[in-house]
């Protein structure tokens, strides 16, 4: 059952943005699939014939998640924060409960290829659709008013003017770009162009930086000096061709204001936090610089839940780095492991600009990549054990 559900659960997240793309009223396909995944996990836990490989690790992650939230929730209880505010804050984080589902799913090594294919082809599909919509807006073929009303109703699109927008699913366009460049499948250059075009049209600086950091680190890790040279030359050419558009992007007052807001949030935190904030957090109801929404997820974690929240946020990254480091360079799974790991790196970089690691989009990818890396680590260990000479 889990093997059947996995492509549906993960595929919907890859193309479905923040979860409201496929929704009717308050009911969304993501929540239905999430509930189905929890049910399948419960059935798997109750089955005596089902392997428990990876499940204890997932269970410890879930326990660590609740433990990290406890200080902030105690602050909320003492302050009397309304329950609806608390639930609204922690609702996206409940996707941590799906950790055992992914542990079960990746007991089957075929899930690694399935996940990679969903990321690559789903990301390309999102890139094509969003690019066509933006070209349609520019040409006047797509009705701006109708698209804006849909965006306002769902919260899935953020417009950068009359012809450009950022779709929450652009996160997986970035991940897909990392995958195609690292894995170099057939037609990878064409796919990379389509993905890069969509990212470029989204005018989202945080994603640009995150993808660039992930790719450069992957090149260094994979010893791909020629690829670095190609990327550098392409970047210079693009800077020359689109210098005016880049200047407009960098110096547009509306774009500058978002960076200024993040800077003010950080300055406010540094000037007001004390040991209580550091140890316990200020709870889910606390405003930062008069604002409830905090775009920097790392700052959000420590402001809401203290040092425990921030430490837990980095725990999966540390686990992923450990799994990746234990996969030999010459292993046949090294390339897919690199794609999954540097996708995680991209996630953590972009999280400094937009809240991805603390919502269903980033959490789902993080859990998928983490247990994919764990499975590949176990595969290399099993292969090494089989190759050892017997006495």
What does this molecule look like?
The structure is a single chain. The chain is mainly alpha-helical. The protein is built from 17 helices and 4 strands. It has a two-stranded antiparallel ribbon. Strand 3 (157-159) and strand 4 (165-167) form a beta hairpin. It is globular. The relative contact order is 0.13.
Topology readout:
Layout: H1 2-15, E1 23-24, E2 27-28, H2 29-46, H3 55-79, H4 83-90, H5 99-105, H6 110-139, H7 144-154, E3 157-159, E4 165-167, H8 170-183, H9 188-202, H10 205-222, H11 225-241, H12 243-251, H13 253-272, H14 275-280, H15 297-325, H16 334-350, H17 360-387
Antiparallel strand pairs: 1-2, 3-4
Helix pairs in contact: 1-2, 1-6, 3-5, 3-15, 6-8, 6-9, 8-9, 8-10, 8-16, 10-16, 15-16, 15-17, 16-17
Note the run of SSEs as H and E: HEEHHHHHHEEHHHHHHHHHH
Mean pLDDT: 86
Helix-strand category:
mainly alpha
Strand order of the largest sheet: 1-2
User: How many β strands by DSSP?
Assistant: 4
Percent strand:
under 5%
Q: Which term fits the overall shape?
A: globular
Question: What gyration radius follows from the Cα positions, in whole Å?
Answer: 21 Å
First and last CA, distance: 42 Å
The residue ranges in which pLDDT falls below 50 over 5 or more consecutive positions are 240-244
- Share of residues in helices: over 70%
Count of DSSP-assigned helices: 17
- Main beta sheet, described? 2 strands, antiparallel
List keywords for this structure.
391 residues; single chain; mainly alpha; two-stranded antiparallel ribbon; globular
Describe the structure concisely.
By secondary structure, this protein is mainly alpha-helical.
């Amino acid at each position: 059952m889990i093997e059947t559900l996995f492509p549906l659960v993960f595929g919907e997240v890859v193309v479905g943005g923040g979860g409201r793309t496929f929704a009717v009223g308050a009911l969304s396909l993501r929540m239905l699939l999430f509930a189905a995944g929890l049910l399948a996990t419960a059935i798997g836990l109750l089955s005596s014939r089902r392997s428990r490989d990876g499940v204890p690790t997932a269970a410890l992650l879930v326990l660590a998640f609740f433990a990290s939230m406890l200080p902030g929730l105690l602050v909320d209880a003492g302050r009397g924060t309304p329950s609806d505010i608390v639930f609204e804050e922690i609702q996206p984080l409940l996707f941590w409960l799906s950790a055992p589902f992914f542990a079960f799913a990746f007991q089957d090594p075929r899930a690694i290829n399935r996940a990679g294919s969903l990321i690559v082809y789903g990301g390309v599909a999102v890139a094509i659709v969003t690019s066509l919509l933006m070209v349609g807006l520019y040409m006047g073929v797509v009705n701006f008013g109708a698209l804006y009303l849909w965006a306002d109703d769902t919260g899935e699109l953020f417009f950068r003017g009359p012809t450009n927008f950022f779709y929450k699913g652009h996160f997986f366009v970035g991940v897909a770009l990392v995958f195609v460049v690292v894995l170099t499948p057939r037609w990878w250059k064409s796919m990379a162009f389509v993905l890069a075009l969509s990212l470029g049209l989204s005018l989202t600086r945080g994603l640009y930086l995150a993808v660039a950091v992930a790719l450069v680190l992957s090149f260094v890790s994979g010893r791909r000096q020629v690829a670095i040279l190609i990327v550098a030359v392409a970047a210079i050419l693009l800077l020359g061709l689109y210098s005016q558009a880049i200047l407009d992007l960098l110096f547009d007052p509306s774009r500058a204001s978002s960076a200024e807001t993040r800077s003010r949030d950080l300055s406010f935190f540094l000037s007001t936090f004390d040991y209580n904030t550091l140890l316990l957090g200020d709870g889910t109801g606390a405003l930062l610089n008069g604002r409830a929404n905090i775009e920097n997820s790392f700052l959000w974690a420590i402001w809401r839940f203290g040092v425990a929240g921030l430490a837990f946020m980095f725990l999966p990254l540390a686990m992923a780095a450990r799994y990746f480091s234990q996969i030999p360079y010459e292993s046949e799974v090294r390339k897919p492991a690199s794609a999954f790991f540097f996708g995680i790196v991209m996630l953590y970089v972009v999280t400094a600009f937009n809240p991805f690691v603390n919502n269903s989009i980033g959490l789902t990818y993080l859990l998928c990549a983490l247990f994919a890396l764990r499975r590949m680590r176990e595969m290399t260990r099993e292969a090494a054990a089989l190759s050892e000479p017997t006495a």
